[in-house]
Amino acid sequence: MNPEIDALKDDNGQLNEQAIKKIIPYEHPFLFLEKVTQLEKKKIIATKTVTGDEDYIKGHFVGFPIMPGALIVEGMGQAGTLLLRYHLENHQKKEILAYKFQKAKFMYPTLPGDELRFEVTMKGKNDKGAVMKAKAFNNKNDRLITEAKFTLAIVDRERFRAKFSKKQ
């Protein structure tokens, strides 16, 4: 586990949004985690409330707004990224990238007013990445919304950014 990340936890062992932003390189409007309620060796639980004010909601199923399934999967990926960083020394010198998503299933829509609960478990890890299994639930009724299996890659931040930066 990572003492730098553990130091960001509150008295209940949770991470608020400001702490999350110190760990993963995301910011609004593309941050899909508001709070981490549990961070353990192999599991993370995080939440995101869908208010209906988000721009992506307003244009998705006009007249009947639904959170896009791809963004629910993105939230799972962000939770998995934080879990993987929890296992890395010098995590700030690494980028965690989506490598492969498979077996994603969407059972129910996520509507304004719903609170998503992302539960991600690390199934295996090596120096190159990790395999994750994730579920997203609606916290209002504990209904399973989405599930997926995915692989995250670990790369050196400096080399990755140098390789893919636009040449001036």
Structure overview:
The chain is an alpha+beta fold and 168 residues long. It has a single domain, classed as Hotdog Thioesterase (Thiol Ester Dehydrase, Chain A). Helices cover 24% and strands 36% of the residues. The protein contains five helices and six strands. The protein has helices spanning 3-6, 17-23, 55-58, 69-85, 157-164, and strands at 35-39, 43-49, 94-106, 115-126, 129-138, 143-156. A six-stranded antiparallel β-sheet has the order 1-2-4-5-6-3. A hairpin with a 4-residue loop joins strand 5 (129-138) and strand 6 (143-156). The protein is globular. The termini are far apart. The mean pLDDT is 95.
Protein topology:
Blueprint: H1 3-6, H2 17-23, E1 35-39, E2 43-49, H3 55-58, H4 69-85, E3 94-106, E4 115-126, E5 129-138, E6 143-156, H5 157-164
Antiparallel strand pairs: 1-2, 2-4, 3-6, 4-5, 5-6
| Percent in helix | 10-25%
CATH topology: Thiol Ester Dehydrase, Chain A
CATH homology superfamily name = Hotdog Thioesterase
User: What structural class do you assign from the helix and strand content?
Assistant: alpha+beta
Helix/strand order: HHEEHHEEEEH
Distance between the termini: 39 Å
The CATH architecture can be named as Roll
Number of helices: 5
Proportion of beta-strand residues? 35-45%
Characterize the biggest β-sheet: 6 strands, antiparallel
The pLDDT mean sits at 95
CATH class: Alpha Beta
Q: Could you tell me the radius of gyration in angstroms?
A: 16 Å
Shape: globular
Overall tally of structural domains:
1
Strand order of the largest sheet: 1-2-4-5-6-3
DSSP summary, beta strand count: 6
Weakly predicted, low-confidence segments: none
